[in-house]
C-alpha cells in the first residue's frame, strides 16, 4: 500500500503562484513515478506533470510548460508542484498519483487539493 497526501491548494489571483506538496508513504521501491493530475468542474481528469523518482526525469503537459515545475525531496519523501503565473483555466482539483515504472496505470491516488484562480 502507498499513501499520498496532498496539500498547498488555495484561492489566488491570476498571475500568482502556489506550491503543491504530495507526501508519499508506505511500501515503495526506488523505481516509481509520481504524477500530478487535475480535474476541473465538468471536465475529465487530465495529466499535468510527472517525475521519475530515481532519475528526476520530468514531463509536462503543454499548457503548463514554462509555468509549472515538478521536483522531489528525497529526505522528506515528498514531491512538489510549483505553479507560477497561474491562470483561471488552471482552476481544478489537483491530485497526486503513484505508479511503478513497470506498470502503465497509476494505482494510488491522493485525496486532491483545490486550486482556484480568480481573474
The outline comes out as globular
Spans where pLDDT lies below 50 across 5 or more residues: none
The largest sheet is:
7 strands, mixed
Mean pLDDT across the residues is: 95
Binned strand content = over 45%
Number of strands: 11
Kindly name the structural category.
Answer: mainly beta
Number of continuous helical runs: 0
End-to-end Cα distance, whole Å, is: 40 Å
Description:
Strands 2, 4, 5, 6, 9, 10 and 11 form a seven-stranded mixed sheet that branches. A four-stranded antiparallel sheet has the order 1-3-8-7, with no helix packed on it. The N and C termini lie far apart (40 Å). Strand 7 (68-73) and strand 8 (78-83) form a beta hairpin. The protein is mainly β. It has no helices and eleven strands.
Architecture blueprint of SSEs:
Layout: E1 2-7, E2 10-13, E3 18-26, E4 32-39, E5 46-52, E6 58-60, E7 68-73, E8 78-83, E9 92-100, E10 108-109, E11 113-118
Describe, in short, the structure shown.
Helix content is 0%, strand content 55%.
What are the defining features of this structure?
seven-stranded mixed sheet, single chain, 119 residues, mainly beta, 11 strands
